[in-house]
Specification:
Helices cover 47% and strands 12% of the residues. A hairpin with a 4-residue loop joins β5 (242-246) and β6. The chain is α/β, with parallel strands linked by helices. This is Helix-turn-helix domain-containing protein. One of its GO terms (molecular function) is DNA binding. Residues 17-79 form the HTH cro/C1-type domain.
Length: 282
Amino acid sequence: MTQKASAATQRRSVGRQLRAAREECFSDRADKELPVADAAAALRVNPRTIRRLENGEVKPNYTLVESACRLYGLAPEKTARILEMVDQADEDEWHEKYGQDIAPWLVQLLDLEAVADRIHIVESLVPGVCQTPAYAAALAVKSPKRVDDPDYARRLAAIRGQRAQNVFGRTENCVTLLLDEAALLRQVGGPKVMAEQVAHLRELDTKPNVSIHVLPFASGATAAHKGGVTILEFNDSKEPDIAYVETYLSGHYSVKPSMLVELRVRCASLLTQAIQLKEYTP
């Protein structure tokens, strides 16, 4: 694993250790949410800052982490180990120069998809990590916030390209993609752009570690129409699997076993109704 890749997992590890320390510190409390507010008040930050830090969604602030360790009564040697991880988690990530173009809730996904051992994606449109530059540019012009930013399409294509390299440039991971048939037929950018996009998907599907499936219209209404989902899985037992669900205005992450089980069951059910891309003809 590269140093840049390790920064993402180091952030998650720091967050898990701080959460465990906070919960142990407040173990006599029945309300599990109130200690977050108490800790935030003691550290003079917003409770959301504590949650984002514990979820590994942001770079850990050295001073804040040090203060939290002291508040939770951690031993000096334990604090030193956590702070060493904070230094490693502070490595710059490739996407930081595109900060204005990336929704804040996407940052963790970009970090973790680059190091996940298995990625399962269910989408009704071609997901960003699989988009060609022309397809991404066609979507970019639809953004009402970018009408006065002619360079946005180029930056978006660069982001898509780096994501693709991080995911499909590896051979030790496994990627399973389930697309609604509409993703292959909707004319984003016109026939030429779509032909190029579908050809790109077929090329990705030839990789031994990539499997792309299509959920045909004949399947009728399915669970896929309730929204897209990405599940990231890790071989390291210390690195919990995580699910990502995106809405129009935000993204939601969860490591809850119950939610992961439910989403895995949904994905498995959809796969039984799908056909492999190599067998698909419009």
